TrEMBL record:
Family listed: Belongs to the acyl-CoA dehydrogenase family.
Protein name: Putative acyl-CoA dehydrogenase YngJ
UniProt-listed Enzyme Commission number(s): 1.3.99.-
Top-level lineage group: Bacteria
Keyword Isomerase: no
Annotated organism of origin: Nostocoides australiense Ben110
Phylogenetic placement of the source organism: Bacteria, Bacillati, Actinomycetota, Actinomycetes, Micrococcales
Alphabetically ordered keywords of this record: FAD, Flavoprotein, Oxidoreductase
Cofactor(s) the protein requires to work: FAD
Length: 394
């Protein structure tokens, strides 16, 4: 059921070739310099990576019957196998940038933004997390009030991917636009184009990992945008970002899977060539058993990831429920993200002192892995989602 089609495997080979040619030779330097390779994004666009889930009318290539979301996960996995920052650039660019506009945008909003985003001429971001409201997204302090025919936005967002590049065209932010009848916050999504007066992008974060990825805080001080920049219906922002996060969790699972695969490859190659006490260290059970564990994690992660992706594609065809996808996404994301952290620890241990040296890729992946347990919902949030879906009391 979860074996990928020949179409997807052929696509995997194409993306892997691209990643090995256009990304692998440069990532060590990009990581050292904390450099976001803006010129790589149009190349990804030319390959069609940003348009995998987008209809042809907006420049994409989505064919509902060919598993477009599964194809996106294949691309994220293969890019993530070479570098996690590049993988998250695609994942966030589509899942958090393009998808909200594609799913909830008006015809005018789609026509304005999607063609450039699909082509890789621009990137979009999604501003949800706030300095004082992480997993508790309903506690958003960012506010948007109507003044005539304009929204006036005030507040701040934190840890926003693809938000400060030279080609970022728009950030969709969640903001409190009032209160519901029962007194709860009314959360709406509003699109704020780059360059809007009062919209300030903070300096890039000094991060533990994902050094190539573009990540900033955002500040809004009386930032004014037209009323029609509301994305979807007023008050629907909470439902919109929950749906966005469900899909994004599958993509993060694919990203983590790429990391696990790379750690298994690196550890196996090193164990076959590193000689200690007159023989390859892979001849020792203490090493070989750990690599066997990596293979097990990879296989389990692959099945969980592509089961969830398959269910997502099925849901788009009306053949699966939202609840099924939500549960599969949480399970896949939880398992693969935690397995990825373990995989980097195992690989680094097998490399010994060399694993602590930046000249070996396992060091970069070790730094990159931890955020997988945090972004798109922490491990604790995933366990909460899984438990609730099992019928346990909230």
């Amino acid at each position: 059921m979860f074996e990928l089609s020949q179409h997807h495997e052929d696509f995997r080979a194409m993306v892997r070739d691209f990643a090995e040619r256009e990304v692998a030779p440069y990532v060590a330097q990009w990581d050292r310099e904390h450099h976001f390779p803006t010129d790589l994004v149009p190349k990804m666009g030319e390959l069609g990576l940003f348009g995998l889930v987008v209809p042809e009318e907006f420049g994409g290539s989505a064919d509902p019957e060919s598993g477009p979301f599964t194809a996106l996960c294949v691309a994220i996995e293969e890019l993530g196998r070479v570098d996690q920052s590049i993988g998250i650039t695609l994942s966030a660019g589509v899942g958090l940038g393009i998808n909200p506009i594609l799913t909830y945008g008006s015809a005018a909003q789609k026509e304005r933004f999607l063609p450039d985003l699909v082509a890789g001429r621009a990137l979009a971001a999604f501003g949800l997390t706030e300095p004082d409201a992480g997993s508790d997204a309903g506690a958003s302090r960012t506010r948007a009030t109507l003044d005539g025919e304009e929204w006036v936005v005030n507040g701040a967002k934190a840890f926003i991917t693809n938000s400060g590049t030279d080609i970022t065209s728009v950030v969709t932010v969640t903001a409190r636009t009032g209160d519901t009848k029962d007194g709860r916050p009314e959360i709406s999504a509003i699109m704020i184009p780059s360059g809007t007066p009062g919209f300030e992008v903070a300096p890039a974060y000094d991060k533990l990992g994902w050094n190539i990825s573009d990540t900033h805080g955002l500040n809004f001080t009386n930032a004014r945008v037209p009323q029609e920049n509301l994305l979807g219906e007023r008050g629907s922002g909470f439902k919109q970002f929950l749906k966005t996060l469900d899909d994004g969790r599958i993509a993060i699972s694919a990203l983590a899977l790429g990391l696990i695969t790379r750690m298994r490859e690196e550890a196996t190659a090193y164990a076959n060539t590193r000689i200690a006490f007159g023989r390859p260290i892979g001849a020792n059970q203490g090493v070989s058993f750990q690599i066997a564990d990596l293979a097990m994690m990879e296989e389990a992660g692959r099945l969980l990831t592509y089961k969830a992706a398959h269910l997502k594609d099925e849901q788009e065809q009306g053949r699966r429920s939202v609840a099924e996808v939500k549960q599969a996404a949480a399970i896949a994301k939880l398992y693969t993200s935690e397995a990825a952290v373990t995989a980097t620890r195992i690989a680094t241990q097998i490399f010994g002192g060399n694993g602590f040296m930046e000249e070996y890729p396992v060091a970069r992946f070790y730094r990159d892995a931890k955020i997988l347990e945090i972004g798109e919902g922490t491990s604790e949030v995933q366990r909460m989602v899984i438990a609730r879906n099992l019928g346990l009391p909230s």
